[in-house]
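Appendix B, example 12.
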Amino acid sequence: MTVHLKKLSVGSDSLDSLRSRQKEIIAAGRPLLHPTRNWPRRRDEVLNGGSLYWIIKGQISARQPILELVEIKQIDGKPKCGIILSPELIPVWPRKVRIFQGWRYLENEDVPADMPRDETDEKPMPLALAKELRELGLI
């Protein structure tokens, strides 16, 4: 069984700002590693195809497949969990969520669907356009 994590993207104003920040990390040759204080107790389920769903401005906005969970050290020497993410940032249908601290589990049946891609299947449809088409019942 697969379970996912949801997490606030602190400092991101938009999906583009998160994407830009991550591109800088990748360009510097570093892995996309997100530190968090607590380890998922459902580690095996998270590593069985789970994704980290990013919350931006109160909405789940995108997901990234989780590749690995590793131990990292805080400045004071205490261990933390490092979530290693795939460089692929996949936009999803926005879904409002309440704000919380840390991360929370997101069950497979509760995940929002990935956004449709354009006719070339190379990039996601612009969020505003997809949202409008969905409200009109066209997709």
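The radius of gyration is 16 Å. The CA atoms of residues 38 and 81 lie 6 Å apart.
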